[in-house]
Amino acid sequence: MIVKAEFGVRSKEELVVQPFSSKVSRTALIQASESYRKAAESNEPLKPFRVTALRTERGVLYSRGQGFVKLFPDVQYTFSATSIQEDFTEELLSKPAFSFEIYGKKLLCELLKLEVVNHLDVSAQESRLYKVNFLTPTLLQFPRPRLKRKKNRYILFPYPPVMFSSLAQHWNRYFSPPVSRATGTRALYFFREVDYSLSPVTVRYDEGFVRGFVGWVLYSLEARKGSKLRADVRRLLAYANYVGVGKSRSVGFGEVIVKETS
Fold first, then answer.
1. Which helix (H) or strand (E) covers residue 31, if one does?
2. In a 10 Å sphere around its CB, with 0-12 CB exposed, 13-18 middle and 19+ buried, how is residue 57 labelled?
3. Fewest CB within 10 A of the end CB: N or C in the chain?
4. CA angle at residue 224 from 141 to 181, to 5 degrees?
């Protein structure tokens, strides 16, 4: 089961927050969900939660470079949270509205929408073309070689093998049947780029900076119709809408919207 919730956040005062605004989202969710609090404190990889950055009708709130983000009074900001844990639903319904504090200011948060889906029903609609919109800096990297230096090295283009590997690892951690055929270099041949518009972007996070990319890519799915390979790809594409893509997706990086297109 996959649970996706959308929240609204309002501040009564003007408030300056960190450059990547998911700090506010995560602070709010800790007040609403004990299971999320425990997961957030854990060092385990591939967490069963994903929390997005704040957004308005104009887009996601994050600052490029060294700037900060400012929240204005009585403006509704929204964010979403996805969980693989069943008790998440009960936690949210028991506390649909609450207040929380951050940076010495009190904010109000309320549950706006709750979606519960069976993971076996997760699949993108049949199409030849799929457009993947990367809303927040996406951090993808190839498998690390065995080197003493372990600094992350993120790529600035969403190559299908890397993207599908990221999604399959998360899916296989929590669900079955496992997805295996959609990964590897074969993805370069059955999921091909048709057009794209991407930009590299550097964002300050905690005490450092991360560099990823935002934008969109139009892909053509050329796996045989009715094949397990094609079904696996459609499943992973739909799953990306719930959990995001790449490293640090649990805190809002790699947020994507995948849509079928003609």
1. helix 22-32
2. exposed
3. C
4. 40
Token pair 């927050």 in the structure block, residue: 17
CB-based contacts of 44, cutoff 8 Å, min separation 6: none
Amino acid identity of residue 10, one-letter, is R
* DSSP H helical ranges for 71-218: 87-93, 160-174, 187-190
Burial 17-49 (b: 16+ CB within 10 A, else e): bbbbbbbbbbbbbbbbbebbeebbeeeeeebbb
Q: Which of 229, 259, 214, 253 is nearest to 241 (CA)?
A: 259
Q: What is the set of domains in the chain, with CATH numbers? A: 2-117 (2.40.30.310), 122-261 (3.30.70.1900)
Average pLDDT over residues 231-237: 96
Going by C-beta distance under 8 Å and a sequence separation of 6 or more, which residues neighbour residue 179? Answer: 167, 168, 171, 172, 232, 235, 236
CB 231 within 8 A of CB 120: no
- Burial string for 204-241 (b: 16+ CB within 10 Å, else e) reads bbeeeebebbbbbbebebebeeeeebbbbbbbbbbbbb
Instruction: Quick: pLDDT tens for 29-43.
Output: 999 999 999 999 998
Condensed to tens digits (0 to 9), the pLDDT of residues 134-180 reads 999 999 998 777 766 667 889 999 999 999 999 999 999 999 999 98
DSSP label at residue 156: S
